[in-house]
Fold this protein.
Amino acid sequence: MTEKCLITNMQRFSTNDGPGIRTLVLCVGCNLKCKWCHNPETIPMHNTVFWKSALCVQCGLCIESCPEEAIRPPIPVEEARAEESAYHKIERSKCTDCMKCVEVCDFDALAPVGKMLTVDEVLDEVMRDKLFYKNSGGGLTLGGGEPTMHPKFMLELFQKAKEEGLHICLDTNGTAPWKVYEQTLPFVDFYLVDMKNMDTELHKLGTGAGNEKILENIKKLSEVGAKIIIRVPVMYDYNDTAENFEQMGEFLKGLPNPVHRLDLLPFHNWCQNKYNWMGIYWPLIEEENMDPIECEDFKEILETYGINCTIGG
Ligand code: SF4
Ligand code: SF4
């Protein structure tokens, strides 16, 4: 029997998630809660409904469909769409994400964030761009959410993708038990692993968990000779200090094998629509986008430790 997983997106022609042209497949479910998460819809392990105010005509048709009385009565369209509006169509504390309302909305204002797909269905989609992968050195990247939370699905997908000759990247937060990564070693060409903060207390503050397991897994991956690309989201007043990057450089320099590359990813807030669609207030909404030039000093620090570093990936 082929495994299934709730997939939120299959992004074709991705060029930032491993070498060459790739298809990025995103699974739901994450065990971290990063404050700056750009894919909040992938954090819960279940499907969720998006409500898009820009598409909603406030016809009220969805009200009757909801068994939980979770849908708010219509208000004038302009009022609902106003930038300062606090109106959200769905009372989230009552919503069970049953998706019944999605079926009645003719305006695509209600949509499930994900779709349950089999390994074969995912692979069929990924294989559409096989020619591009071949010419660019690209392939499949599995991310999320946290794909290691679906080990059976992930391993079956990797095994079948390898049989098709695909190059495979696993984009992970680094927190899975080692035995999960160990099982992926025969298939994965590159591990894209996040490092957020070298101070474990600050790591916990930003993500909900300390960094010990992540550092341990990076070390183990390096010991077995896995190819690793480290990704660091750079956040104002969180990890944008010389001290943090010096400690990161020390740690990476001490690994048994050097990492392939480290990508510094300056903060941006382009994901705010998703928070609005889920009816979640995002505290970073007012935060300025970080100019990549602000990461130059950190790049220089990392380079002094012999690390091949890019800004933006
Ligand atoms: S059915 Fe769709 S367009 Fe009509 S009120 Fe509900 S969400 Fe809005
Ligand atoms: S997903 Fe189900 S419970 Fe939630 S608002 Fe729609 S119909 Fe109601």
In short: Residues 49, 65-66, 68, 70-71, 90, 95-101 surround iron/sulfur cluster (ligand 2) (CB under 6 Å). The chain has two domains: 4-45+114-311, 49-112.
